[in-house]
């Protein structure tokens, strides 16, 4: 008669093997693209494929190329960079337009916008600029509401733009003549724009509206034609993303949900406030034993936490499931042919 302890051990082995098989099958069904957007862990589309807070919604409803959105928000994402811990998104331009009699605007679109989807994202202060377009226009950005200060918001910044006509407006130059730009504070997660009311009667023929937005500074170049910009226009901007479960790395290491428990990742402070971006160790720091591939393989990119990384050999690439922490168990790998790996 089989002893009970042996039966229990056999059953546990069977369950463990079944769980590993199911996990691999589940992970192999994770989509890695939405349209042209590469989606890699900690991001994911299907349930079980992403870390909490890093969900991507892939909208395939219109029959055209799929569109990626951050979580369940209406924020369209066009690029996710694991290397820099940033996502490029699109946001509609805010504006107000005028007529000959009204000092203030007769038509406007000034929605407040929160980019802090699931506590993951902050607006990048080193890759974006606050931008104002218009003649005789003044606008400011306000962010982070508070009840403790002398004013309703913690942060304010703004710009003034003026031009008597378009003769001194220079394409590609944002110097306060038709266009004004300034830096934004670090750590912003929401935006609310306001304009100061000036008469635009004199300027209507060449600058009937004022426009304000935060934009990727490497993308936007001012043009005189922007003085009559389409009010439906959207602009790209960068968001810093990070695992923000704790204020410091030391605090995070004591959590059961610590994101960087893999030997292939380290914790470091994020750009926008205290946070935990998934930063990889340099290749030379990684013990060879934890990369279960042949000697000819080359580790392309180790930007993922929880032992989720890409390796390349001459024929294929392998991906480690993020929820297995025992790097020595090769059965937790499965083969993904024609995998491009992380962007370098």
TrEMBL record:
Its main location: membrane. Keywords: Signal. It comes from the Eukaryota. GO terms for cellular component: membrane. Residues 30-89 form the Wall-associated receptor kinase galacturonan-binding domain. It is found in: Membrane. InterPro entries: WAK_GUB. It is a single-pass membrane protein. GO terms for molecular function: polysaccharide binding. Residues 1-27 form the signal peptide. This is Wall-associated receptor kinase galacturonan-binding domain-containing protein. It comes from Musa acuminata subsp. malaccensis.
């Amino acid at each position: 008669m089989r002893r009970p302890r042996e039966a229990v051990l056999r059953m546990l082995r069977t369950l463990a093997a079944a769980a590993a098989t199911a996990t691999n099958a589940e992970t192999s069904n994770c989509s890695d693209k939405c349209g042209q957007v590469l989606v890699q862990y900690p991001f994911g589309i299907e349930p079980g494929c992403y870390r909490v807070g890093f969900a991507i919604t892939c909208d395939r409803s219109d029959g055209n190329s799929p569109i990626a959105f951050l979580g369940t928000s209406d924020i369209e994402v066009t690029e996710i960079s694991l290397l820099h811990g940033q996502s490029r998104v699109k946001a509609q331009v805010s504006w107000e337009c005028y007529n000959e009699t009204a000092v203030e605007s007769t038509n406007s679109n000034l929605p407040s916008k929160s980019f802090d989807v699931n506590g993951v994202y902050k607006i990048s202060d080193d890759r974006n600029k606050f931008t104002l377009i218009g003649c005789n226009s003044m606008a400011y950005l306000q962010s982070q509401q508070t009840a403790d200060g002398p004013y309703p918001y913690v942060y304010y910044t703004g710009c003034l733009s003026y031009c008597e006509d378009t003769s001194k407006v220079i394409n590609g130059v944002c110097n306060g003549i038709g266009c004004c730009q300034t830096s934004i504070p670090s750590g912003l997660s929401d935006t609310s724009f306001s304009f100061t009311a000036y008469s635009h009667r004199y300027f209507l023929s060449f600058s009937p509206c004022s426009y304000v937005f935060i934009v990727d500074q490497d993308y936007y170049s001012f043009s005189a034609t922007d003085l009559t910009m389409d009010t439906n226009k959207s602009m790209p901007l960068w968001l810093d993303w990070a695992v923000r479960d704790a204020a410091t790395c030391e605090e995070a290491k004591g959590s059961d949900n610590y994101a960087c428990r893999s030997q292939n990742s380290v914790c470091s402070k994020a750009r926008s406030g205290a946070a935990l971006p998934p930063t990889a160790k340099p290749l030379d720091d990684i013990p060879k034993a934890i990369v279960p591939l042949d000697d000819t393989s080359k580790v392309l990119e180790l930007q993922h936490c929880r032992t989720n990384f890409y390796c390349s050999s001459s024929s294929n690439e392998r991906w480690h499931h993020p929820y297995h922490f025992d790097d020595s168990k090769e059965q937790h790998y499965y083969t993904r042919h024609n995998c491009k790996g992380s962007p370098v």
